[in-house]
Amino acid sequence: MKLVDGIRAELRAAADPERAPKMQAYMKSAMPFLGVPSPQVRTITAAVRREHPPADLDDLRAAVLALWDDAEYREERYAAQNLLRYRLGTGDPALLPLHEHIAVTGAWWDHVDETARHIAALHDAHPEDTAAVVRAWSRGGDLWLRRLAILSQLGRRDRLDTVLLQDVIEPALPESEFFLRKAIGWALREHGKTDPEWVRAYVAAHEAELSGLSRREALKNL
């Protein structure tokens, strides 16, 4: 596949062996890095995509899976996620299983937090169906899908569904897991930029249930 081969070739050409181990250590990644900064990965991905655009959604999905599942370096997985920013991959519910696959197999905050932006677009395009999937994630056994559910409305501002936000936070309230507590605080803090009174009221109503970390993050800028 020319798109996949082109991205891999350009990433390897841009490799920085001195930077790579530092990036791997920072991300605590078992998969090695090439040492290509994220902005450059995005630039490379976009340039190769323009040269070899996916013909349709199936073509896009195949390219993403090839880069993701067969990745030797973490930047290939970043490139796979960047391809999903392409208009073909925005707001299409047929890609929900792919987003879930990425979150579960990526199993780390960088991949999950990028996936959240794609789920936010799905909330806008298909709110009822997406909300049902996200609620199921929030009550499931996979940590990263639970985090994804909590963060899935980031950036929606006044379009955010507060009932859904409460529903996906609730199962995580008793948990001591850092990545869930941090996600709760982040989601509330972001919504506080749009509706600070709602966030203050939510924190007050759940004072006894919210962890100190979640509470501090939620109220940080209020």
From TrEMBL:
Pfam families for the chain: DNA_alkylation (PF08713)
Recorded superkingdom: Bacteria
InterPro entries in UniProt: ARM-type_fold, DNA_alkylation
SUPFAM superfamilies: ARM repeat
PANTHER family hit by this protein: ARMADILLO-TYPE FOLD, DNA ALKYLATION REPAIR PROTEIN
Name of the protein this chain belongs to: 3-methyladenine DNA glycosylase AlkD
Organism: Tsukamurella tyrosinosolvens
